[in-house]
């Protein structure tokens, strides 16, 4: 099932814990969304571009284990929690382009293509498992510092990557 709610006047999305929605594509470019929580675990493609999201907190997408493509472009996002996407076990592409991100720190467990183009990013820090990032796009930012920490399989017990002893790696960005 495809649920296209684009161009509607919706300002928040939250499913009741008892409701079971079975859709794979969820398109909500309404210009009004400011809050997202408790979405269906069956969503594979989620388009939340062109809304008024400002913060992505840990837990926002925890129910989306099947999510492969997440578009958060063209919002007003200023902050993304480091572990916001950790439970998205199937995530392949994440689009955070054209937001207001300045200092970005993200952690990924699997291979992801990350689009951060057209923000105002000064500092980018990534914690990744071995081979967890496919590509990172950072054009049209103000990037001064790039840090990438590679976490080996033997070093994955801590839930706080800031405190892990991952090794600092060279990294290529686009």
Order of helices and strands: EEEEEEEEEEEEEEE
> Could you tell me the mean pLDDT?
78
Q: Which ranges are low-confidence, i.e. pLDDT below 50, for 5 or more consecutive residues?
A: 155-171
**Radius of gyration using CA atoms only:** 16 Å
Summarize the amount of helix as a percent range: under 10%
Kindly name the structural category.
mainly beta
Order of adjacent strands in the largest pleated sheet: 1-3-5-7-9-11-13
Total number of strands: 15
Number of helices: 0
Major β-sheet annotation? 7 strands, parallel
Describe the structure.
By secondary structure, the protein is mainly β. It has no helices and 15 strands. The strands form 4 sheets. Strands 1-3-5-7-9-11-13 form a 7-stranded parallel β-sheet, with no helix packed on it. A 4-stranded mixed β-sheet has the order 10-12-14-15, with no helix packed on it. The chain starts with a strand and ends in a 6-residue tail after the last strand.
């Amino acid at each position: 099932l495809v649920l296209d709610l684009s161009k509607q006047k919706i300002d928040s999305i939250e499913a009741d814990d008892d409701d079971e929605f079975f859709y794979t594509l969820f398109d909500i470019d309404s210009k009004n969304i400011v809050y997202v929580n408790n979405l269906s675990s069956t969503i594979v493609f989620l388009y939340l571009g062109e809304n008024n999201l400002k913060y992505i907190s840990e837990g926002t997408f925890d129910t989306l284990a099947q999510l492969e493509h997440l578009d958060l472009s063209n919002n007003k996002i200023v902050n993304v929690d480091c572990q916001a996407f950790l439970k998205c076990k199937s995530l392949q592409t994440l689009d955070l382009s054209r937001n207001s991100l300045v200092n970005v720190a993200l952690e990924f467990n699997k291979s992801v293509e990350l689009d951060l183009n057209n923000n105002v990013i000064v500092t980018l820090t990534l914690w990744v498992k071995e081979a967890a990032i496919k590509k990172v796009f950072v054009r049209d930012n103000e990037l001064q510092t790039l840090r990438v920490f590679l976490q080996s399989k033997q070093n994955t017990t801590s839930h706080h990557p800031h405190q892990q002893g991952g090794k600092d790696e060279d990294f290529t960005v686009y």
